[in-house]
Amino acid sequence: MTDETPLFFKIFLVVFTLIALVGVLPSSVTLALLGLVVNLPPPPTSEPIPTTQQQLLHIVRDNFQAEVLDACARRATLVDFYAPWCGYCKQVAPIVAELANAYAAVDSIAVGTFDATKNNVNDLGIALDHYPTLFLFPQGCTSVAQRVEFTYGMPTVKKLIGWMADYANLSDPSAIRRFTRTPSLVDTKAPTVDANAAPAGEGGRAGGKEEL
């Protein structure tokens, strides 16, 4: 479709396409077709895969399989799913970065971030209803269905370390527990999460949250 195409005709095609396709094709396909009609760029699906990684992993849709699921054979990975405009995400970001540094010498645990506004999280089989969302993919997991969400109020480094000690390894929790309770990581014994305790924060979510 050229720039000379009358605007009313473009609008007609958009409306017709919506009527014809809504409920028939997947939303991603519908959006792509609409983009062709009105000359819009396609919706983002993934940021470029980083050529190098820092201690805090930069996880995108196209390297999620390699950095998270495939890596479950040798380690657990905590992923902070966030949005840049989210105020609570900005509060949690330095905590997640500090956690990554705390585990710098621990090969069996990794920490990363995932910008959910620039990467299609639905392609991964994950549904988000608030930001930030902290998911732990335990060592030994084989699918995203085995992820564990942090739901114990506003996270702190010590709180996350204690929580991960209970959930980070599906086959041998004591292996992770030994790492997370060493004096080199925390100055006091990491707390143990009481499985019977009511989650803190509204709705049991991680402290404050931005609903989607």
UniProtKB/TrEMBL annotation:
Its EC number is 5.3.4.1. GO terms for molecular function: protein disulfide isomerase activity. One of its GO terms (biological process) is response to endoplasmic reticulum stress. It catalyses: Catalyzes the rearrangement of -S-S- bonds in proteins. Pfam families: Thioredoxin (PF00085). The keyword Transmembrane applies. GO terms for cellular component: endoplasmic reticulum lumen. It comes from Sexangularia sp. CB-2014. Residues 190-212 are annotated as: Disordered. It comes from the Eukaryota. Residues 36-169 form the Thioredoxin domain. The chain crosses the membrane at residues 12-38. It is an enzyme of class 5 (isomerase). The keyword NAD does not apply. This is protein disulfide-isomerase. PROSITE patterns: THIOREDOXIN_1, THIOREDOXIN_2.
